[in-house]
Amino acid sequence: MPQKVTAFAPATVGNVAVGFDILGFALDTIGDTVTLHRTEQRGVEISDIRGVVTDLPRGADENTATVGLVQFLADFGLPFGLRVEIDKGIPLGSGMGGSAASAVAAIVAANAFVGGKLLRTEILSYALLGESVASGDVHGDNVTPSLYGGLTLTRSLEPIDVVQIPVPDEICCVLVHPEHRIDTRNARQVIPKDLPLSTFVQQSANLAGFLSGCFMGDTELIRNSLQDLLIEPHRAPLIPGFSQVRQAALSNGALGCSISGAGPSVFAWVKNQADAEAVRDAMRAAFAGASVESSAWISSLNCPGASIVEEG
Amino acid sequence: MPQKVTAFAPATVGNVAVGFDILGFALDTIGDTVTLHRTEQRGVEISDIRGVVTDLPRGADENTATVGLVQFLADFGLPFGLRVEIDKGIPLGSGMGGSAASAVAAIVAANAFVGGKLLRTEILSYALLGESVASGDVHGDNVTPSLYGGLTLTRSLEPIDVVQIPVPDEICCVLVHPEHRIDTRNARQVIPKDLPLSTFVQQSANLAGFLSGCFMGDTELIRNSLQDLLIEPHRAPLIPGFSQVRQAALSNGALGCSISGAGPSVFAWVKNQADAEAVRDAMRAAFAGASVESSAWISSLNCPGASIVEEG
């Protein structure tokens, strides 16, 4: 049995314009890292939170990284405790799945203490416990891709039913994170509880077109489908400069551009690496035009999910 | 140039449980046939309506088969008229796309009078003119599969964007038509204009799972996804015995069972031909238990769209 295990879980983009609460994809250039140390003392203790976020709850029942661990230790009746170090690579409240990544990394690391016997769906269940603490709601659009990698459909959580959606290899993602924080709960509150059927129908058509485009490798079908008629109109006003940023992305050849998760980060899909830099620069310039500082990443779309990076 | 052209267009199942107004598939065992005779007298005249329905509007501007023809003749400035015979194989108000099939057959036949130069999307546009007369609304979930065959996604009508969705070869459809007429407009009125976002998210998950199952050839994913949470609860009360019929289908191994279009016909997808007969018999027995007579068909799912059957 290891004494110490470190796991990494990637940042993710949830919703993906057409799949509110069900679609998400992993990024390859940013994420959270969690290290677990086996301790003689029972229970879960957070000893360090470092990186781009440090102001997080320290109680094991409150932190997204540890809530699942507490349940995990209880379920397996393990005769030891865990000391937890969290390295946050994902900005807080960025819409990049930070709480999900910490939760996933923790359980992926914990799995090494039981000989890796957890099924992937079991890891997902434990990680969802942590995510629910953060967002006040349980859905898999960030946890699932952070664990599985690539573009995922979380068809159902009870029972867990996850589908990996193929994406044409050359397509990549530009993600721009403006220095403007949105609380996930607030971002949920701006969405009406009821929405017009006619909007649902159009959004369904785009979801169906988008998925078909992914399966068929049809970039133009993806381009024609990758737009959010349902949620984006309600959340866009929360993000200063959003409409200009989106327009900048599309004018520079992006296949689509929408809000990453609950925002304020904005993602664009682009046909290839060559387009990605122009789109990134145009999006950042548009944010700057709205007096908003930003950071940006370019990522492939078929990148791996969470994994153990060190064990000893 | 031909003197007389006959075309057949198949009956269709619209909505397909998870794709309200956007998904539809063609049946191979039933449809409408339209014969066009070139006449010296200009204009469009209906000379005969026969088959399972005869009580249809006779005015060229009112009948779904001829509305598109009138526009077609005007657009091409053709120096002749058309006399139209309609052979209805599809019961009226059955939810099997009868108005769409007549409209499609008419335009497919008309295309032969201009040397077949119409694009498929142009045929679709003309046929939609007829469909709009019948349903008071324009959507492509019946017209598209009647023209293209197989399972189709009508992602957009402006511009026309149609995607052919593959279906595993062995899957087939059972369609049961109860002797109980529903008016399409009434079936639309029972659906609320606004629906809960939470229901839409679940329905989207099923739509995405269903399409993924079709592309991946994953029968169990299709089974888990093929259920309508959005529309069926509102329309089911219009169909006597529906819940028993659906339960009978599922108990006998159907992958899913829902309302065909606006109803009252009910369709089921089954894994293979061997299951189809048992499911059909169970569904008909359930209708009989609700004192409703019914007819039934078993059809493959990858069957052809409309075509010319005679030209002379």
UniProtKB/TrEMBL annotation, chains A, B:
Compartments it resides in: Cytoplasm
Single GO molecular function: ATP binding
Nucleotide-binding in keyword set: yes
Entry keywords, A to Z: Amino-acid biosynthesis, ATP-binding, Cytoplasm, Kinase, Nucleotide-binding, Threonine biosynthesis, Transferase
Domain GHMP kinase N-terminal: 71-150
Keyword Amino-acid biosynthesis listed: yes
Swiss-Prot/TrEMBL GO biological process terms: threonine biosynthetic process
Function: Catalyzes the ATP-dependent phosphorylation of L-homoserine to L-homoserine phosphate.
Record-given protein name: Homoserine kinase
Biological source species: Bradymonas sediminis
Protein encoded by which gene: thrB
